[in-house]
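In response to the reviewer comment on reproducibility (Comment 2.3), we provide here a single inverse folding case reported in full, input and output, so that an independent group could reproduce the run without further information from us. The structure tokens appear first.
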């Protein structure tokens, strides 16, 4: 269990931070960028939850995803370098992605097929979900870039983020009155 008693420590004032294994890294380190972008996606999903009407069916799903994203951040901030730690680090699992896939299938089954791309927008909740989708894609790119440096990265995190962006697209359509309030792209329509 996490217990925070003091919010500021001043330890990061010099541009360095501690990872979950207590090793130090620059604040611009690719690992810090990766889990920081996951945190940004999480905060944006929180905006979407706040914009949904009270009792909307997406609220519980999105809140569970926010918990998963904390798991992803915990996984990313403790690199698995094969060294024994004094505790068992939290790692993402394949079943978290499988749950997303089941939700995508369930929600998408009631949507009409698209005949055009949709513009991010419609309702405030849908716009926030589209923003969360694009930030999630950026988080995925940051995690893949981290992996390309030879740093250890959980494949479960990469897969989860990839699937999450798909779920957020479907959820944005659900938040737009099951797609009826989607704003469709009109190619060349502003010429």
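Designed residues, in position order:
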């Amino acid at each position: 269990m996490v217990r925070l008693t003091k919010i500021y420590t001043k330890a990061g004032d010099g541009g360095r931070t501690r990872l979950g294994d207590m090793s130090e890294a620059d604040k611009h380190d690719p690992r810090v960028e990766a889990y920081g972008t996951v945190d940004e996606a999480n905060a944006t999903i929180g905006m979407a939850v706040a914009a949904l009407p009270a009792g909307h069916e997406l609220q519980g799903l999105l809140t569970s995803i926010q918990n998963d994203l904390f798991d992803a951040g915990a996984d990313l901030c403790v690199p698995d370098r094969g060294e024994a730690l004094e505790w068992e680090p939290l790692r993402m699992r394949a079943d978290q992605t499988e749950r997303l896939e089941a939700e995508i299938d369930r929600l998408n089954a009631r949507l009409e097929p698209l005949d055009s791309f949709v513009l991010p927008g419609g309702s405030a909740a849908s716009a926030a979900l589209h923003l969360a989708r694009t930030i999630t894609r950026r988080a995925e790119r940051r995690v893949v870039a981290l992996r390309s440096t030879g740093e250890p990265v959980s494949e479960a995190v990469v897969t989860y983020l990839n699937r999450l962006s798909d779920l957020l697209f479907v959820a944005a359509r659900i938040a737009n009155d099951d797609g009826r309030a989607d704003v469709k792209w009109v190619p060349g329509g502003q010429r």
